[in-house]
């Protein structure tokens, strides 16, 4: 899988749209987001947090908060989707993903703040993750969810994922999608940058 240039993370930011056309900025998390990220998770409903972490937590435990903030460490990446609310950049959704090079897959989990749900944000974010996955060379992307999480199951179904049993946990279901993005609709900066770096690595024979 192609490597990201971790020293310049801002270049991998994308602007998406909610169903109503509001702009969403999707970018890698930064150290300045620490308090805002914790505030985001504390503000989620108990149910949303349970569905996101498969257990009851009221906020991100210290170790996990640290992990969320380390972009690229152990090949794990956190992106946040932000919107301007009353003049402040506010986190309205987050996703964490991990490319697995040996299986050419990308594993992910995500959440959308309760106040912002049902506006097409997760749908747009999934599409963006699909493009990021393709840029990293993944051929499939997958996530796990509780069997009882009908919302995520419905979202995954609408987004073209198929369902399989989780290999080790009967309470979970795995949703998986083959990545087939057409270059004609390149929807993320990661793809453009990966294409440029491939070009630089192998200049044409006539050059
Ligand atoms: C699952 C989740 C990410 C969906 O986010 P969202 O931004 O509201 O999703 P969208 O607006 O893109 O909705 C897409 C589809 O998902 C389904 N959906 C979303 N919210 C739903 C709800 N409350 N009830 C039933 N279906 C729902 C619908 O099929 C919807 O399509 P529709 O609006 O055309 O009917 C969000 O509910 C969430 O963060 N839940 C808590 C965390 C979680 O469950 N994470 C998944 C585990 S990794």
UniProtKB/TrEMBL annotation:
<keyword id="KW-0808">Transferase</keyword>
<dbReference type="InterPro" id="IPR016181">
    <property type="entry name" value="Acyl_CoA_acyltransferase"/>
</dbReference>
<dbReference type="InterPro" id="IPR000182">
    <property type="entry name" value="GNAT_dom"/>
</dbReference>
<dbReference type="GO" id="GO:0016747">
    <property type="term" value="F:acyltransferase activity, transferring groups other than amino-acyl groups"/>
</dbReference>
<feature type="domain" description="N-acetyltransferase">
    <location>
        <begin position="24"/>
        <end position="180"/>
    </location>
</feature>
<dbReference type="Pfam" id="PF00583">
    <property type="entry name" value="Acetyltransf_1"/>
</dbReference>
<keyword id="KW-0012">Acyltransferase</keyword>
<protein>
    <submittedName>
        <fullName>GNAT family N-acetyltransferase</fullName>
    </submittedName>
</protein>
């Amino acid at each position: 899988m192609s490597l990201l240039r971790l020293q310049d993370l801002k270049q991998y930011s994308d602007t998406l749209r909610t169903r109503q056309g509001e702009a969403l900025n999707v970018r890698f998390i930064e150290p300045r987001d620490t308090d805002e990220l914790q505030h985001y998770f504390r503000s989620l409903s108990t149910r949303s947090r349970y569905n996101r972490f498969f257990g009851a937590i009221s906020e991100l435990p210290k170790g996990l908060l640290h992990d969320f903030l380390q972009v690229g460490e152990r090949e794990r990446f956190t992106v946040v989707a932000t919107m301007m609310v009353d003049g402040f950049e506010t986190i309205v959704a987050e996703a964490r993903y991990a490319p697995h090079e040996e299986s050419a897959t990308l594993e992910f989990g995500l959440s959308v703040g309760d106040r912002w749900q049902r506006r097409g944000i997760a749908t747009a974010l999934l599409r963006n993750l699909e493009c990021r996955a393709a840029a990293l060379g993944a051929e499939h992307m997958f996530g796990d969810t509780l069997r009882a999480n009908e919302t995520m199951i419905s979202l995954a179904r609408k987004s073209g994922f198929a369902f399989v049993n989780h290999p080790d946990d009967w309470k979970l279901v795995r949703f998986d999608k083959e990545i087939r993005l057409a270059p004609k609709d390149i929807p993320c900066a990661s793809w453009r940058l990966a294409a440029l770096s491939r070009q630089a690595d192998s200049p044409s024979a006539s050059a």
